[in-house]
Amino acid sequence: MNWYIRIKKKINKKNLRTRIAKKNSNSRFIQIMNKKYINFSSNDYLGLSHEKKIIKAWKKGAEIYGIGSGGSNYINGYSIEHKLFEEELAKWLNYKKTILFTSGYAANQAVITSLIQKKDIIIADRLSHASIIDAAINSKGKLYRFKHNEIKNLKKLLSSNYKNKMLIITEGVFSMDGDTPKLKIYHKLTKEKNALLMVDDAHGIGINGLQGRGTCWKKNIKPEILIITFGKAFGISGAAVLCDQDIGEYLEQFSKNFIYSTTIPTAQIYALRMSLKCIKKGGDLRKKLKKNIKKFNQLNKYLPYIPKKSKNHIQPIILKDNNKVINLTNKLRKYGYWVHGINTPTVPHNTARIRITINTEHKKQDIKNISEIIYEFQNI
Ligand SMILES: *Cc1c(COP(=O)(O)O)cnc(C)c1O
């Protein structure tokens, strides 16, 4: 078949994803064309993407260091700022090593594809982020997925594969469901079988735990490998892997993403260091976020659509049916609330949903209004 016949056949299908170009946004508002909406879809949970101190730091960083890092980790791209940021993160989260990557996607690829060799086993929660699942599929090992947050299923897989090296992967706060696994039990089970536990805390870092140290800190566990990202609560972009000395040195030597990719711009690292400072001191922001989540939970207590009862900033309104999701999304947008529907196949069959994210900058009235519209929709 000709290349373009195949390509066209694929892109002419129905239900393709579309992007909507925003004019601008912050964590409370988003402007699309000429309409301003209250934004219930942002990952900028603490509003730091517009924090003046961080913007100032980025500008100052650019003045000192220029705008590009000028190279990869081994050739010209690693600076004293990168080194300081690594040390600050390691100290903050109590790990020996920090390895920086330009994105969470790259970090997950790097760890999984470089650690996993032939005959190794990856055991991941079924609902893990695509960057985890794709890396596992692309690796030389074998992937097993266990039922979402189900210990029994995980135990079984651990027992039947214990002769091989096993990497167990889950998330701190799941990106589509807002729930958290029983991490303490996971770690106990994985240690018993000499497996490594890897937790991707993209949505928990900056939010959960003392001074925002994340979900693992809150649950009092220290997984062998912790992934954090800077595109969510940190308000910028980039990611880091936290681990012990040996795993860190291994990644530095054998991760292609680490070796052959341009490092995060030094000025951005300068801004990220300020963002880290804001997060450490962000007790008030987290308190406000908790208050907003509580308000949302209270107002939606009787809504049958939120079966998971997420206590986190991610609140799925599970309508099951793709058409219903489209209808409620349109209705909310008509009234000035910006949300995104997540349909199958992004989420499993029969779990189509609207993914609402609560953030620090929402006003009480925003939460009340959106809840009312959802409630009315339910009664149609
Ligand atoms: C967002 C996200 C990523 C990807 O991080 P990027 O920095 O956006 O590439 C990885 N894992 C999880 C769980 C995420 O939510």
From TrEMBL:
Q: Which UniProt keywords apply?
A: Biotin biosynthesis, Pyridoxal phosphate, Transferase
Q: What is its EC number?
A: 2.3.1.47
Q: Which GO terms describe its biological process?
A: biotin biosynthetic process
Sequence ranges assigned to domain Aminotransferase class I/classII large in this UniProt record: 36-372
| PROSITE patterns xref list | AA_TRANSFER_CLASS_2
Question: Which molecular function GO terms apply here?
Answer: 8-amino-7-oxononanoate synthase activity; pyridoxal phosphate binding
Q: Which cofactor does it need?
A: pyridoxal 5'-phosphate
- What start-end ranges are recorded for coiled-coil regions in this protein? none
Which Pfam families does this chain map to? Aminotran_1_2 (PF00155)
Instruction: Please give the pathway this protein is involved in.
Output: Cofactor biosynthesis; biotin biosynthesis
Enzyme class, first EC level, given as a word: transferase
Catalytic reactions on record = 6-carboxyhexanoyl-[ACP] + L-alanine + H(+) = (8S)-8-amino-7-oxononanoate + holo-[ACP] + CO2
Query: Of which family is this protein a member?
Result: Belongs to the class-II pyridoxal-phosphate-dependent aminotransferase family. BioF subfamily.
Note the subunit structure. Homodimer.
Q: What is this protein called?
A: 8-amino-7-oxononanoate synthase
